[in-house]
Description:
Blueprint: H1 2-20, E1 31-33, E2 36-38, H2 46-58, H3 62-68, E3 69-79, E4 86-91, H4 92-105, E5 109-121, E6 128-139, E7 148-159, E8 169-177
Parallel strand pairs: 3-8
Antiparallel strand pairs: 1-2, 3-4, 5-6, 6-7, 7-8
Helix pairs in contact: 2-3
Amino acid sequence: MKQAGIFLALVVGALLFVFSCENPFAPGLKHDFEGAALIVTDQKTPEDVLINFKYAYNFKDSLVYADLLDSSFLFISKNFATEPITDLTWGRDVDIKTTVGLFRHFQTLNLTWEGTVYARYLNEERTLKEIKKVFSLVIDGGREIPTIRGEALFVFKKKLFSANDTTGIWRIIRWEDLSSF
């Protein structure tokens, strides 16, 4: 009986020890990070998507970035290197490849959302939302490349998982870079 008590105490002690330890190589999500509920959100709102967008850029996380974009995603910008200025347009696959190249090429990226110009729903079902944001992007500490400041126009689409689903997740279907370099 005494051995059973010692064994039980050792098992309970071991379980308490194991469950009280935190793995520093696989930490959990942090709460209350710069006003956000989580570092990486579950994208239940368009604003959550923008939190994840900032995270993806600042931590150069291409997996998080890829999850932001809907399969119908379209990027639109201006090519100021041409005369006359022409439009640049590409889809999801090219955007992910371009962004991964950006992440690999530069040591640090620091994206900051400076403010919201406006936000509005585009349909009665409230499954499409447009948000115009002001941003700044500092590349490699701003030593060689000046801080990029501009505006971006995003259109988000809520993806419902079934006809009865009311939660769903949001993704970007259109990103128009309105910056003029």
